[in-house]
């Protein structure tokens, strides 16, 4: 087998491996998101939290600190919309899972 053919086959294998790995990570992230949403929607309560950090670019993430039964939790979530123009330090409404209070849905997510 010529060196050129080996190099082409190696590059094709490398590209397939990288694409497969990226696809696997995306699917795993979607699965975790669905599990979180289903767990919260199964049995939930409402509460409020404080936005400790918010990013408006590259994925839109938000960090929320909240207190349930005298225990403080912190969650990092994605967000879809921000009609009230909430920012760091503002209060935010959340729904949390009664069984697993570390799982929440914020008012900035479509699923809320």
From TrEMBL:
Annotated TM spans: 6-26
Superkingdom per UniProt: Bacteria
Keywords carried by this UniProt record: Membrane, Transmembrane, Transmembrane helix
Name used for this protein in its record: DUF3592 domain-containing protein
Species of the source: Rufibacter tibetensis
């Amino acid at each position: 087998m010529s060196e050129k053919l080996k190099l082409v086959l190696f590059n094709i294998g490398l590209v397939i491996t990288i694409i497969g790995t990226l696809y696997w990570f995306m699917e795993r992230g979607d699965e975790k998101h669905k599990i979180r949403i289903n767990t919260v929607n199964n049995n939930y309560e409402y509460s409020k939290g404080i936005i400790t950090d918010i990013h408006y670019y590259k994925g839109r993430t938000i960090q929320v600190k909240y207190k349930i039964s005298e225990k403080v939790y912190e969650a990092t979530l994605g967000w879809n919309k921000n009609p009230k123009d909430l920012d760091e330090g503002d209060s935010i409404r959340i729904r949390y899972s009664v069984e697993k209070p570390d799982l929440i849905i914020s008012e900035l997510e479509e699923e809320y």
